[in-house]
Inverse folding.
């Protein structure tokens, strides 16, 4: 798989997973509170759009910061501005540089070998994934309503498939990622539903 395709797919998967879990949880919570299904669907549509925009904006600014390499320089400037003897200041700066290099090495070893997407493409991929995931939840909600177990089947299966692929692309245990992602989404939704029933 080409590097850019792998980066795009992992970015879409990040958005897709959050785009399923967040509206699924909100939907279950509002249904648990006894709200009318049409109202819950409308609120959830707003949640999907809001979540996609927030995640995309966060992804854009995070990626822009990563590519600018200014974060480390700002930290070094803080150390340089400290009112401490020169020898101590030099040691602090060397420690900060070494820790940053160790962190980068550790982070890069866990990331796919693909070239990261530029900020706008990264944000667009997350947005597309999030909107897709939210749309799946909303379309599914037109047919099934909690506590009907069938309401959870499509989102959880999609979460499991997304988790499997995401963990595989990141070089992590894929089967564990599948169970973790699907299980986390299901537990969040069911937990929200039962908490809402308790609060009602």
């Amino acid at each position: 798989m080409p590097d850019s395709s792998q980066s795009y797919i992992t970015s879409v998967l990040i958005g897709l997973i959050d785009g399923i879990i967040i509206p699924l949880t909100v939907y279950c919570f509002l249904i648990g509170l006894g709200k009318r299904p049409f109202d819950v669907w409308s609120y959830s549509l707003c949640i999907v759009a809001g979540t996609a925009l927030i995640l995309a904006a966060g992804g854009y600014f995070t990626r822009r910061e990563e590519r600018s390499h200014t974060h480390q320089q700002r930290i070094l400037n803080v150390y340089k501005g400290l009112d401490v003897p020169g020898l101590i200041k030099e040691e602090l700066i060397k420690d900060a540089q070494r820790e940053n290099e160790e962190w980068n090495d550790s982070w890069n070893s866990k990331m796919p070998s693909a070239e990261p997407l530029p900020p706008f493409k990264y944000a667009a991929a997350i947005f597309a994934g999030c909107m897709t995931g939210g749309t799946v939840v909303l379309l599914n909600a037109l047919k099934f309503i909690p506590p009907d177990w069938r309401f959870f089947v499509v989102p959880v299966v999609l979460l499991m498939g997304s988790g499997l692929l995401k963990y595989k692309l990141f070089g992590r245990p894929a089967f564990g990622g599948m169970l973790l992602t699907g299980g986390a989404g299901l537990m969040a939704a069911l937990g929200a539903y039962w908490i809402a029933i308790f609060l009602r």
Remarks:
- The longest helix spans residues 37-68.
- The chain has a mean pLDDT of 86.
- The CA atoms of residues 23 and 89 lie 49 Å apart.
